[in-house]
Amino acid sequence: MSSIPADLKYLESHEWARLESDGTVTVGISDHAQGALGDLVFVEVPEVGKALKKGNAAAVVESVKAASDVYAPVSGEVVAANESLGSAPELVNQDPYGQGWLFKVKPSSQDELAQLLDAKAYEKVVASEAH
Amino acid sequence: MPFIPHTQDDVAAMLAAIGASSIDDLFEEIPAALRTKSLAGIPEALSEMEVGRLMQSRARQDGRPLNFIGAGAYEHHIPAAVWAIVTRGEFYSAYTPYQAEASQGTLQLLYEYQTMMASLTGMQVSNASLYDGASALAEACLMAVRAHRKSKSARILVPATLNPTYLQVSRAITEGQNLAFDVLPYEPKLGTTQQSGLTAYTGQDITAVVIQQPNFFGQLEDVDAITDWAHANNALVIAVVNPLSLAIYKPPGEWGAKGVDIVVGDGQPLGVPLSSGGPYFGFMTTRMEYVRQMPGRIIGRTVDLDGKQGFTLTLQAREQHIRRSKATSNICTNQGLLVTAATIHMSLLGAVGLEQVAASCQHQTRKLVEALTKVRGVTLAFNGPRFHEAVLQLDRKVDDVLEQLAARGIVGGFDLSRRYPELGNALLVCATEMRSDEDIERYATTLAEVMK
Predict the structure, then answer these.
(1) Distance from C-alpha of B160 to C-alpha of B96, rounded to nearest angstrom
(2) Do residues B151 and B207 touch, judged by C-beta distance below 8 A?
(3) Distance (Å, rounded) from C-alpha B439 to C-alpha B140?
(4) Whole-prediction pTM value?
(5) What residue in A sits closest to B318 (Cα-Cα)?
(6) How many Å lie between the alpha carbon of A9 and the closest alpha carbon of chain B?
(7) Contact flag B150-A47 (C-beta cutoff 8 Å)
(8) How far apart are CA B103 and CA B297, in angstroms?
(9) CB-CB: which of A42, A44, A67 is closest to B323?
(10) Cis omega before residue B269 (within 30°)?
(11) Candidates 3.40.190.150, 3.40.640.10, 3.30.360.10, 3.40.1190.10; CATH matching B81-343
């Protein structure tokens, strides 16, 4: 069973989002997603300053098996991107909710975050995919 | 012989299995308005025998003229061994070798091709080829837009001395992707890109600058200065080169202070015969930092579980069979058979052989220019160093002269007057190592007769 921290919000497409104390939202991919993808070999993070729209592709993760888009859970401006993934994409596999974060967004509204799945709902998504 | 091996019964059985009543049913989701019944200008099908006759009669029209035309495709000697080896059963399949376990020979050959192209162009990584030089440039422009994330303009500066077909093809392929191509003027006396045309863009957001070396007129551009200007203005540099010329000129990877970013060109001069415009093959090399933005197949060398060397397609996540619509390109493949020929050609000639061919081309072209400019009414259009082509100006219409030469068995060159009207009666001529001193003498004598 993959880890699904209770304090995060999720997307059905397996991204997680965390509201930080400074009002920004940190985004990554879930433990389940990194496990399904396998060893990551390349991560393309968005450029700082880029305007993201909720649901649009914001980053790309590429593993030995597949390449997937990472969708923006909220609209807003990219304020930070995890540049260390350029040389160490395996951080996403090793620590998906910590050092493996992808980018931080300054959300244009707070409402979108509330619409995301909570840990319980996401757990159901993961469970239904197992069948 | 039918090319589709399914019998009527096979087709009926397959349709029954999926519950469709006819093959047309399979296309039902495409609205009738979008379907083409027939294509304008495409004649009815002919039998193989009829096609054979037609092609023979067309080939007879060409005859075996003495050729002085280049303009992007060049007549070179190809050792007989090249195509004897290429047409062996083991090589004679042009398609991408997806099955590494069944394709080690082809994969190793492509890997060696990549190594040769990277070394010839002075770059770190090569793909396994593209369709041709013109589409390779289009792909390089799209790649530059993807790779240069800080540039928002998608504006590409192209010299007027670029092969005009390459610009046309690049515009056609990139249409709808919001690229802007700005054409840089050339020095009227030198036939090379005007420095002031370039500096007019200083400080603007330019995604990439294209440099063709030698340029379409055969002249050598000041590639170091253009490369450095582009990098100083935060633009990427795309070099379009004749691979043969790199045997005697500085590779694009060493142009300017830090070398260019992407190199493309047509590989035809490396063992591919002239054939009514193709098929030829395009090549592309780049810096390792841009490899994930490069379109096309890449072959990598690896080891198997037992530690033995093996070859395989690599970095496939960029490609259309994995990434579908988000691939780096959806219209590219490799030209496996022609690349096989090029690899064998380069192996047989070796570095010294290639250098001798390139030097001989340059030498014969100098003799050609000397001989032809002695003819009354013929002058040289541009001063300055050149490779194996030169622009001549005539005192009368070029197409009339070419027609009379053709009647005497000489293909006299490429008429520039339609593409470059400002040059007047301009003719682009070329001599490769295939043109002997006697051939050049015959052209000069015949031209003097025609222009009496």
Answers:
(1) 36
(2) yes
(3) 38
(4) 0.88
(5) A67
(6) 27
(7) yes
(8) 14
(9) A67
(10) no
(11) 3.40.640.10
Q: How far apart are alpha carbons B310 and B303 in whole angstroms?
A: 5
Contact B326 A69 (CB under 8 A): yes
The structural domains of chain B, with segments of one domain joined by +, span 66-73+350-450, 81-343
What are B274-312's pLDDT values in tens digits? 988 889 999 999 999 999 899 998 999 999 899 999 999
Residues A30-50: tens digit of each pLDDT: 999 999 999 999 999 999 999
- Whether ipTM > 0.95 holds is no
Q: Of all helices (H) and strands (E), which one includes residue A28?
A: strand A25-29
Neighbours of B18 (CB within 10 A): 8
Q: Are A69 and B317 in contact (CB < 8 Å)?
A: no
Element (H, E) at A47: none
C-alpha span between B9 and B28 (Å, rounded): 22
The residue written with tokens 């100098």 in the block is B366
Q: Could you tell me the CA-to-CA distances from A123 to A2, A17, A55, A131, B425 in Å, in that order?
A: 9, 15, 20, 13, 76
**Res B401: pLDDT:** 98
Q: Where are the domains of chain A?
A: 9-107
Chain B partners of A69 at a C-beta cutoff of 8 Å? 326
**Residue A47: which of B149, B292, B323 has the nearest Cβ?**
B149
What is the architecture of the domain spanning A9-107? Beta Barrel (2.40)
CB contact under 8 A, A66 and B317: yes
- Classify residue B412 as left (phi > 0), alpha (psi -120 to 50) or beta: alpha
Partner residue opposite B322 with nearest CB, options A42, A67, A69: A67
- Report how far residue A39's alpha carbon sits from residue A27's, in angstroms, rounded to the nearest whole number: 19
The pLDDT tens digits for B401-436 are: 999 999 999 999 999 999 999 999 999 999 999 999
Residues 6 or more apart whose CB falls under 8 angstroms from that of B265 comprise B133, B136, B239, B240, B241, B242, B243, B282, B283
Residues in chain A closer than 8 A to B293 (CB atoms): none
The β-bridge relationship of strands B236-241 and B262-266 is: parallel
Q: How far is CA A53 from CA A21, A24, A56, B16, B451, in A?
A: 22, 15, 6, 46, 69
Assigned CATH for B66-73+350-450: 3.90.1150.10
